[in-house]
């Protein structure tokens, strides 16, 4: 009631996750002549999430995350909800996965009979030791992908992982092609990107007719979108019909595709 008094300087600020808070209480507030000013904070986008994560990590003396791992986390969270708290939780989970991996590797090393035999044979005086700075392990894309899989489970990911190899390469080609600020392209340009990946990985590409057929299959599955009324199949417009982060997440666990997507 303090805000209703004449010359009152009292300001009441309400914060809520629900965007209909003001609507639910508006009749009562209007009866008190206290109609609120509503400010809606939008969800974080990819660039904002990456910037916030990088600012938090700047206080550490060494690199903790691979840049591509942070980008994968930011893209997935921004596409799903834009909740910064979710991004922080996923990063923490990725660090825990890395810690568990390092602990397991150290345990295996300490219990290895080969290592024990090696040290038993070192009876002669050794030369002056060479001190080598240990490599600092960081969270890589594989760790982040495992952390994301614990948090999100998308049917798109399952679909992409079950595709034949050449259809997966087409999706990789589309991801690389549309990273260049393009919204869409033609089937011919997508075919060129596909052939470039096949040549760089020494995989024989399929013919143009089969390539167009596979694009139609991916379109039927909702992964690609083919547009236009062109009779010529090569001139049809094509774009991704799913989030790029889902494709990256689905294929990052395979070294072949991880190198293709870089």
TrEMBL record:
Ranges for domain Cdc6 C-terminal: 171-251
Cellular component terms per the entry's GO annotation: nucleus
Gene3D superfamilies associated with the record: 1.10.8.60, Winged helix-like DNA-binding domain superfamily/Winged helix DNA-binding domain
Entry superkingdom: Eukaryota
GO biological process terms, semicolon-separated: cell division; DNA replication initiation; mitotic DNA replication checkpoint signaling
Keyword vocabulary terms for this entry: Cell cycle, Cell division, DNA replication
Gene Ontology MF: a single term: DNA replication origin binding
Family stated for the protein in its record: Belongs to the CDC6/cdc18 family.
UniProt-recorded name of the protein: Cell division control protein 6 homolog B
Species this chain originates from: Prunus yedoensis var. nudiflora
